[in-house]
Amino acid sequence: MYKVDISEYTITGRGVDKETGEIKVVTNPYDVKVSLVSMLFHPDLRLEAKELLERDKLANKINDCEDGFVLLEDADYEKVKGALGIITGFSRNDVEFVRRILEAEKAEVVEK
């Protein structure tokens, strides 16, 4: 299994102040959960119906996770990792997102 950090992080960019018209530095949250789920269904993946349903189960697991990390079985992790190799158009704001997936910690499952 793989442990993926799905907690939000902060991204920094430039924005225009509506009152003064000045360009200033702004920060916004990057919602990792939303990005991860969106990536699972990206049109570049050209999903077939069966795969779409399997990914919906994975998306629900990610959405239901509330502790900041999601544990993915090897097959699910490969789906996520594989999507990164197909989808194009990432930006600098996505660096941490991609890093969290590609450098996910291998987690040992201990039976209780």
Architecture blueprint of SSEs:
Blueprint: E1 2-5, E2 9-16, E3 23-30, H1 32-40, H2 49-64, E4 69-72, H3 74-86, H4 95-102, E5 105-106
Account of the protein in words:
With 112 residues, the protein is α+β, with helices and mostly antiparallel strands. It has one domain. The chain has 4 helices and 5 strands, in the order βββααβααβ. It has helices at residues 32-40, 49-64, 74-86, 95-102, and strands at residues 2-5, 9-16, 23-30, 69-72, 105-106. The strands form 2 sheets. Strands 4-1-5 form a 3-stranded antiparallel β-sheet. It has a two-stranded antiparallel sheet with strand order 2-3. Helix 1 (32-40) packs antiparallel against helix 2 (49-64). The two termini are 16 Å apart.
Shape: globular
Structural class comes to: alpha+beta
Helix content: 40-55%
Q: Count all strands and give the number.
A: 5
What fraction of the residues are assigned to beta strands by DSSP?
15-25%
Q: What is the tally of helical segments? A: 4
